[in-house]
Write a sequence for this structure.
């Protein structure tokens, strides 16, 4: 009870002290408000441009029923695809292209010979470019700049670079895979060509299939003239000599043809992934030139500065009063 009473007394003393010093507090607070208002006019205004995109669920043409069942090119992406897109938007590949194309080193007044130029550029870029995932699963791209037209142009350029950079990343993996598939396909086709050429050579000297050989023996037995019998005997001898080779080549040819047919799907998929340039986004809203500045907000600056000045003056006056009391005691 005594502590509560003491606290109330202290509060009353503070209120009385503030009321006693109200003139100087009011004057300094007013000066602080005027000063903050004047300073706000010298702050360079910045304009905000915003673009909104949705990631796609898939970014390729599928030749497999299983892949088609998993995701369609018309489907919107989910959390995983959105997080991947944010990583791409924050990548150095996009940042470096924006910095180079729009001359941001000069635009942000960073000297080329500054030993900390990369650090300063990174801070400026992080301050003026932001990429956030909305509650709807889309990605919001915000660009702040003192030039309203440049802010909109940079935001739209980043939207365009999403496909460019992601396709480059994909091709870095898919092109080598396609080359491997292509070489494998060419080797199979070459093997088949060699086998077919050999089979043609054997066929040209009279070698026939297993079913054809049975008819040769039947024709030999049924032949009436010596010339016919001599001809069929010669054909039978050729088939006895090369028949096993012919049958083996036919079996290998069929296996190679089956393998090639099965390989075509993988090859077509690899070729599509390596050569096609896909879109990886749905553009919901492109950035437009802002007609109203985003920063600074003069009312907010004046309000915060005024409150800060008020609290600072009260603190300083209380501190001054306390110092006087301590001097009297000592």
């Amino acid at each position: 009870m005594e502590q509560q009473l003491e606290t109330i007394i202290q509060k009353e003393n503070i209120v009385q002290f503030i009321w006693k010093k109200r003139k100087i507090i009011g004057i300094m607070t007013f000066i602080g408000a005027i000063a903050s208002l004047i300073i706000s006019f010298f702050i360079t205004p910045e304009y905000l441009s915003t673009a909104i995109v949705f990631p796609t669920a898939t970014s390729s043409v599928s030749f497999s029923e299983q892949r088609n069942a998993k995701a369609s090119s018309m489907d919107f992406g989910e959390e995983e695809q959105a997080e991947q897109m944010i990583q791409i938007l924050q990548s150095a590949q996009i940042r470096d292209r924006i910095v180079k194309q729009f001359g941001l080193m000069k635009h942000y007044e960073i000297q080329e010979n500054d030993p900390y130029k990369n650090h300063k550029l990174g801070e400026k870029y992080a301050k003026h470019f932001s990429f956030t995932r909305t509650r709807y699963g889309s990605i919001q791209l915000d660009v702040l700049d003192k030039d309203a037209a440049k802010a909109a142009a940079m935001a739209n350029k980043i939207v365009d670079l999403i496909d460019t950079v992601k396709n480059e990343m994909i091709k870095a993996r898919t092109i080598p895979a396609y080359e491997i598939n292509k070489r494998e396909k060419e080797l199979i086709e070459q093997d088949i060509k060699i086998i077919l050429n050999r089979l043609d050579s054997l066929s040209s000297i009279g070698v026939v299939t297993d079913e054809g050989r049975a008819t040769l023996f039947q024709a030999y037995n049924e032949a009436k003239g010596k010339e016919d019998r001599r001809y069929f005997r010669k054909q039978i001898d050729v088939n006895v000599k090369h028949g096993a080779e012919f049958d083996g080549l036919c079996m290998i040819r069929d296996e190679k043809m089956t393998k090639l047919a099965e390989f075509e799907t993988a090859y077509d998929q690899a070729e599509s992934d390596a050569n096609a340039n896909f879109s990886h986004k749905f553009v919901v809203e492109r950035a437009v030139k802002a007609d109203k500045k985003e920063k600074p907000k003069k009312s907010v600056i004046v309000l915060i500065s005024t409150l800060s000045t008020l609290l600072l003056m009260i603190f300083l006056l209380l501190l001054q009063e306390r110092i006087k009391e301590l001097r009297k005691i000592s």
User: Anything to note?
Assistant: Confidence is low (pLDDT under 50) at residues 4-9. DSSP finds eleven helices and four strands in the chain.
